[in-house]
Amino acid sequence: MRAGLLIFITLFLLLVDFTFVRAAWLSWHHPARAPRMTFARSSDPSVRRGHERGVVPFAGGFLLLTVMMFDVFIANSWTGTPKVVAAVIVAVSMVGFMLGLLLHLTVVWFNWPRFLVPPSLRGDVGVFVERARHRRELAAALREATGRGTERS
To answer: At a CB cut-off of 8 Å and minimum separation 6, what does 106 contact?
Structure first.
């Protein structure tokens, strides 16, 4: 039963990996054919574009998660695998997965580091910069509409 569940989870993660790696490859090499992946339910287009920019570190993190699950499956199935080696692989995979998620969020929020952003999307700004720009424009329009802020005493 336990081995069957580990096989199912590993195969499911391989399917998820294929989807994300394909999306990352297409967004890097063929941006017009890249799928528009939605990671979050947001009506803000800057957040959706940010998640599309961050698909490369996200895919890398999920690949490491699959390596970890495969390692757990191998360690539980065959007794010849040293537990120390399996534990090290799990630890490295978990750290890599968390790093991939952290890099994904930095690409979404700040569009940094640029080398992880597909070349066609490197000119975009991050979500924080775009929201700050929008707030400044909104505040200026509000000041202009109410007549405040134009004269200083």
So the answer is: 112, 113
